[in-house]
Amino acid sequence: MKQLAVMLVLLTTVGAVAQRHEGPRMGKGPKMNMTAEQMATLKTKKLTLALDLTKAQQTKVMDINLDLAEYRKAKFAKIQAKKESGEWKRPTSDERFAFENARLDHQIAHQQKMKEVLTKEQYQTWKKLRSRKGMNGKKKMQEKGRRG
Questions:
Q1: In this model, does residue 122 exceed pLDDT 80?
Q2: In whole angstroms, how far apart are CA 27 and each of 6, 23, 114?
Q3: Contact at 8 Å (CB) between 66 and 36?
Q4: How far apart are CA 102 and CA 47, in angstroms?
Q5: What is the pLDDT of residues 1-55, one digit of tens each?
Q6: From the CB of residue 127, how many other CB atoms can be counted at a distance below 10 Å?
Q7: How far apart are alpha carbons 36 and 74 in whole angstroms?
Q8: Which of 7, 34, 55, 140 has its CA 20 to 30 A from that of 148?
Q9: Alpha-carbon distance 78 to 93, whole Å?
Q10: Where would I find the H helices in the chain?
Q11: Cβ(88)–Cβ(82) under 8 Å?
Q12: Residue 47 near residue 53, CB atoms below 8 Å
């Protein structure tokens, strides 16, 4: 009888733990409630602390970050509007390729802009920060059982 009770508790516990976690998803966290200016300001200040930027570099990086934040907010709003209206459906492989290609083109342009503003040492540090951040995100997604 004790074994049956232990087995029942164990199965219930495993069933409860195995439930899908529906916590804050990517893009729906507290940052998406911020304006593009707020997001750009925070990112610029973090880079200023990490890279020791001059005032001139800060203004240029702020402009770059503001453009990037506005672009991301616009894309997010567009997708949200499609989802709410019911028009959104899973993209085909060709559409996914086009999205990924456009995203990579945008990243290359962003990287070139940053390369023009930063010194060589700052640029190398910035690249290390970006690669480290990307790897952390990949690890977190794998830990949560999402793709990656």
A1: yes
A2: 41, 12, 24
A3: yes
A4: 25
A5: 777 777 776 667 666 666 655 555 544 555 668 899 999 999 999 999 999 999 9
A6: 14
A7: 10
A8: 34
A9: 20
A10: 2-17, 36-51, 55-85, 93-117, 120-143
A11: yes
A12: yes
The reported pTM is: 0.68
d(CA 100, CA 94): 10
Q: What is the dihedral of CA 109, 57, 133, 99, to 10 degrees?
A: -20
Distance CA 125, CA 52 (A): 11
Give percent above pLDDT 90 in the chain.
48
DSSP state of 27: T
SS3 108: helix
Give the pLDDT confidence of 57-103 residue by residue, as tens digits. Answer: 999 999 999 999 999 999 988 888 888 888 888 889 999 999 999 99
Q: Which two tokens stand for residue 132?
A: 């480290």
> Which pair of structure tokens corresponds to residue 116?
């023009």
Of 39, 37, 59, 38, give the one whose Cα is nearest residue 48.
59
Q: Which residue has the tokens 């970006």?
A: 130
Residues near 80 by Cβ (< 8 Å), separated by ≥ 6? none
